[in-house]
Amino acid sequence: MKRRLLETAADLIFPRRCPFCREVTGGGICDECAVWAEKIRRADPAVSLSAEHDAIDFAAAVYWYDEPVRSAILRMKDAEDRQTARTLSDCLRKVLLTRSEFRCAEAVVPVPASAQEFKSRGYTVPMWLSEFTVRDTGIPVCSDTLLKVRETKRQASLSGQERRKNLRKAFSVPESRRENLPNAVVLIDDVFTTGSTLNECARALKCAGVEYCCALTLAVTK
Ligand SMILES: [Zn+2]
Ligand 1 centroid to 194 CA: how many Å? Predict the structure, then answer.
């Protein structure tokens, strides 16, 4: 409640803008950008999974990772643009609430950053997206259920095998959280690139006792 009041106050001082062109809209995407964004919205949000994604039961992404979504995602990360995360989470919430594969979700888990990464920013984009996505749904966010316990190299330049090696045992569910784990969770991240990170997160959750693990992202690379 207090957070909502603070947000309403902040909206008066910093009016909500279109997440893409930054025009003041009071919330939501402006009409012009809506046309542009619609072109990269995926008709079917389901992401096709391969044998490499053996721990993920289902994955969905709202957009293709292309403009204007790409710039909006980068701005969330680089310019600490929480307002954009709030606006874009509306489309994540729609998918979460309408796809039958997510119906049994008991909790949402943001893909974690390492303690060092988190410390340097104090937030992560997946945390913001998770927080706003579950708004008014009654689904809790479990930010401390899954931790990144080891630093990893940037995934982009690595081959499939190197990526798996790089991520091995990078994520873990702390002992203190292993009791009363939800049976079904949805992992939230900004982009589904190769899916290796999401799969390692799902694997760690399943090793700890989670039975059903889905992934939901704003975008997926082609
Ligand atoms: Zn716009």
Answer: 29
Ligand 1 geometric centre to CA of 159 (Å): 37
Residue 177: alpha-carbon gap to chain centroid: 21
Full-model pTM: 0.92
Reported in sequence order, the residue ranges of the chain that DSSP labels E, i.e. its strands, are 58-64, 107-110, 147-148, 171-172, 184-192, 212-220
CA–centroid distance, 34 to ligand 1, in Å, is 7
Q: What is the Å distance from ligand 1's center to 160 Cα?
A: 37
Is the model's pLDDT at 119 over the cut of 90? no
DSSP 42-102: -SS-BPPP-GGGTT-SEEEEEEES-TTHHHHHHHHHHS--HHHHHHHHHHHHHHHHH-GGG
2 C-alpha to ligand 1 centroid (Å): 29
Averaged pLDDT for residues 136-149: 95
72 CA distance to ligand 1 middle (Å): 11
- Amino acid in the structure at residue 70: R
Task: Read off the pLDDT of residues 7-46 as tens digits, 9 standing for 90 and up.
Answer: 888 887 888 899 999 999 988 899 999 998 999 999 999 9
Say yes or no to pLDDT of 63 above 80: yes
**pLDDT at residue 157 is higher than 80:** no
Q: Which domains are delineated in the chain?
A: 40-220 (3.40.50)
Q: Which of 87, 68, 22, 49 is nearest to 192 (CA)?
A: 49
